[in-house]
Amino acid sequence: MEVSDHGGVLVALRLLPGDLAAPSNGVLPGEVAHGLALRAAYTVHVPGLLQTADHAREIFGHVLPPLPQADVEHRVNHRIKRQAVLHRATPVPYSAIIHEAALRMKFGGHSVVKAQLAHLLEMGELDHVRILVIPFDAGSFPGSGQSIYYVHGQVPQLDTVHLDQSHGPALVDAEAQLAKYRLLLDRMEGAALTRGKSRDFIHSILRAL
Length: 209
Description:
Elements: E1 3-6, E2 9-12, E3 33-34, E4 37-42, H1 53-60, H2 69-82, E5 94-99, H3 100-104, H4 110-123, E6 129-134, E7 148-152, E8 160-163, E9 170-172, H5 175-191, H6 195-208
Parallel strand pairs: 4-5, 5-6
Antiparallel strand pairs: 1-2, 2-3, 4-7, 7-8, 8-9
Helix pairs in contact: 1-2, 4-6
């Protein structure tokens, strides 16, 4: 799940599990919220808004059932275009919690991994982008088995959570559940390194490659 600029308003859009797919016509259905801020937490994937084209291409190349190469390229291009939401004149604030496991996945091989880690370091320099790493040494923490995407609406009642599942994304918008996932993300941030230490951690993985 990612966002698009629709009529000058940031809109949250629905995708398939793992944020892996986009319709063949390039138009995403399922507008669910006007996103004023975004929070994401991923344990085995780099969030889509932070992926390089080669990293995304590797992921789309392993979708089941397999996609024709033309569809893979279409989805990669669509994903990269959506990342413009982080480069607007007034960009949406974005906070991404990424587990060390996702940083060490060898999607696409050595050169693709190096470029992806370098891209994370570059994106983390943006004032409105916070990248926080949960290291293996953090041990267990709430939400460790979930991929969570929280969209903050113009009012709390318009907040929405997307949870990745094998059959597709599950949308959560009940007030009690929203409060639960806000707390969950807060606890995950508490388990993560600080922004500066996260940057140093990513840099250390990159240097070791």
